Amino acid sequence: MPLVTSDQAIESALRSDGIIPDIIDSIHQTTLLDVSFGDGKDVTLGNTLAVSETQHTPRVTFMSENPSDKYTLIMTDPDAPSRNEPRMREYRHWIVTNLSGSSPTEFAPSNLSQGTELTSYMGPAPPRGTGPHRYVFLLYKQSHGTNVDTLQQSLSSDRPGFRAKQFSSHGQLELVGANYFFAENK
Fold first, then answer.
1. Which of 2, 5, 48, 154 is the most buried (most CB within 10 A)?
2. Model pTM?
């Protein structure tokens, strides 16, 4: 029986739930991305959380080998207004740049000043009856050429229609971590 690495398991989960190719083309996960809401509501590669549990800014933790590295975190919903009719794909819920790398880095509502918030956090609000939505967290390592002002200027004022692939390519960002959950408004 072949050995399955955590990188392969993560990619398999992302493919199984259509995040590859709907949002990203592929991933070579080098950083574990832990996300949790409130008291113990962890995001675990496709679990389901109640919309009411996800309305406040989550705590995000990741490991970095180099404290001088900078990261960008994105939260996006590719299922707007529904997975069957994603005309507004992707809906941008949150973007934070210039997160410092350390071991571990914890980014929580209490220390939002650590990074530069380009898009303030907006909790999930899927339209009633549109089925489960995928809420995806993407962690990118910034290159030395990443210009946050240029990234800010590339964002429209509208949250719908965001494209993580284009944004990351434009910003010279390298995808290093991903995690996601489902939420539905029945």
1. 154
2. 0.92
